[in-house]
Each structure stands twice: as structure tokens, then as C-alpha cells.
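User:
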Amino acid sequence: QVQLVESGGGLVQAGGSLRLSCAASGSFVNIGRMAWFRQAPEKERELVAVMYAGGPSNYLDSVKGRFTISRDDAKTMVYLQMNSLKPEDTAVYYCNVRSGANIYWGQGTQVTVSS
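Assistant: Predicted structure:
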């Protein structure tokens, strides 16, 4: 059974940093995309950062230069380093992994940035 567990969320002041981690367990075949999404209250879920097998990554325009996605395939982990956080980054952050034809989601971790 595949399971994704996020950690590292919390409350931080504007300008601060957080590092999110996502631990994936279970049987995976050919993990391709590993990504972070977020969903703020009354807003649609949006893609924040994605990293493909082999290293290419893309970011939501509003987080470019502040957030960095990384992955450790040996440990089946994906990370999101978030610096210079802003109140508008407040959301539930979700880990997302594509393995073969399957897509998996974590349960989410709350990030709250106070002004």
C-alpha cells in the first residue's frame, strides 16, 4: 500500500523559512514526477513546484526564487524549502507523486504565515 506523509508545516512569521518533507512508502514503479501543491481557503488547489526524474523542475511564478524543490529517490523523499515566506503562502501543502500510471497524494500539512 502506497502512503505519502508530509511533515514540516507550521506557523511562521513573514520573511521566515520552513522546510517541508514528504516520505513515500510502499511499492513504486518508475517514479517520474514528484511535486508539491497547495490549497488556500476558498481557492483551488495549485501546483507550487514539480521535479521530474533526472532533475528538471518548474515553479509557480509567485514562488520562483523563494522555494526550492528537491528529491532523494533512494529514500523516496521529496522536499520543499520555502524561504522569504509571505502571508499569501498560507495554505495546506500536499505532496504528489506519479508512479507509472498512478498518482498519489499525501494528507497535507498546514503552513501559516503571519504578517
